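question for whoever is on the cluster today: can someone run the full assembly for these? two chains, 270 residues total. i dont have access anymore since they changed the login thing
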Amino acid sequence: MPVTKAESISVRSAGEVVGVRHLVRKWAVELGLSLVEQTKIVTAASELARNMIDYGGGGTMTAEALDDGIRKGLRLIFEDHGPGIPDLQAALRDGFTTGGGMGLGLGGAKRLSNEFELKSAPGEGTRVTITRWKGAT
Amino acid sequence: MQSIPILKMGSFLLVSIQVDMDDRTAMSLQDDLTSAIVKHRAKGVLIDISSLDVVDSFIGRMLANTAAMARILDADTVVVGMQPSVAITLVELGLSLKGVRSALNVERGMELLKSIARDTLAEADQADAGYES
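^ ran it for u. tokens below:
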């Protein structure tokens, strides 16, 4: 998949989640995503960025603008080097949390995205990749 | 961190969130609102979120918690002006904001708060009357 533009930002504190939302919104607008598509991926990004801070000790988000000539999309990669997730199935279940949150972050982000990939192993950190395509339902 | 102004209108409090809140701003708004309810003996709180283009689970939880705390302090909360794209996203996220009353805009929200206050008064009067007879 041809990546036309990429940018990484570090996400270390809860205050930086706002910066993540602004960057994702800007790119989603540039790519021509509809207002609902923009809102979904910005919200998903907000959940995943907060997860990285709360559970991964902070990390980086990389945004990639995708264009294969037929369709355009926005891919976001959230990567931390925290303790990792021992049970991926449980982590994706709504209401499951090991912290003080509501347990909607991972499952919610998955529902708000067209493509979702979760890679994690205990002690090796966590990588979540989400993609939202323009015009996809 | 920004501070969000809380306006007093009669026995109601009015908040219009005009900034993209970080977590600390959201938490301090929750604290400020509960303090203001007690300080002003407010009967209702109206929160206008028409300027918010994102409500994630943290802000959603803050709204739900504020409404629950206000209820315990004998005040009703109405959230008004949610953008349609935000409503669609919230439901898909899995947050239905149960227990939070909503209205389309500030005007309707104020009407709702006034009618809740009237109903509560009428019920109290009825209860008093029943007690005497």
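summary bc i know u wont read the tokens: The first helix of chain A runs from residue 17 to 30. The longest strand of chain A covers residues 3-11.
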